[in-house]
Amino acid sequence: MNKAILSVLIAGLSVAASNAFADADTVMVGGQAMYPSKDIVDNAVNSADHTTLVAAVKAAGLVDTLKSKGPFTVFAPTNEAFAALPAGTVDNLVKPENKATLTSILTYHVIPGRYDFRKLDAAIKQGGGKADIKTVNGETLSFSENGPHNIVVADESGNTAAISTYDVYQSNGVIMVVDKVLLPK
Fold this sequence. Notes:
alpha+beta; FAS1 domain; 7-stranded mixed β-sheet; two-stranded antiparallel sheet; 9 strands; globular; FAS1_domain; FAS1_dom_sf; Adhesion/Biosynth-related
C-alpha cells in the first residue's frame, strides 16, 4: 500500500477514534449535547432547561467568572426549579438593585474544585453519611445519600434538592443538574 494512502487512513482512524471518545464523554442536558471541551457557560447557554439560570448568571455579571479556568462544580437549577419559587421572585432578583442578592444565591450553587459523583460519594462516606462543603459565597451545602447512586443537596435552612443529572464534565469543571433552587441564609 502506498505510504501516503496509509498515512491518510491512519489519520482518518485517529480522528474517528477521537470523535468517538468525545461523543462517549458528551452528556445531553436540556436536549443539547454538553461537550467536555467547552466551558460551563458555553455549554449552559445551549440547554433549553437552563435558560433562567443563564439569564440570572448574565444579570449577576458572573459570565466571565464561570468562563474562567476554575475548576468549579455548579449545581445548576432547572427552569422548573426557578419556576417553583414564589411568583415574581426571579423577576425581582434580576433587577439591577438586587444584583448582590442574586450573586449570593448563584454563588451558593458553586463549589470551588471538581466534585463529580465519585468525589462527593467519597466525601459523604468519609463524613459518616454527610459531607458539608463550603460554596463560593462562603456558606455551606450539605450532601448525603438517598439510596445507591443518589445524592441529595441541602441548603443551610434544610431545603433539599435532588441531583437529576450527574457528572456533566466541562473544560473548567463539572455541572450537576438539580431540581430545586438552594437558598443561602
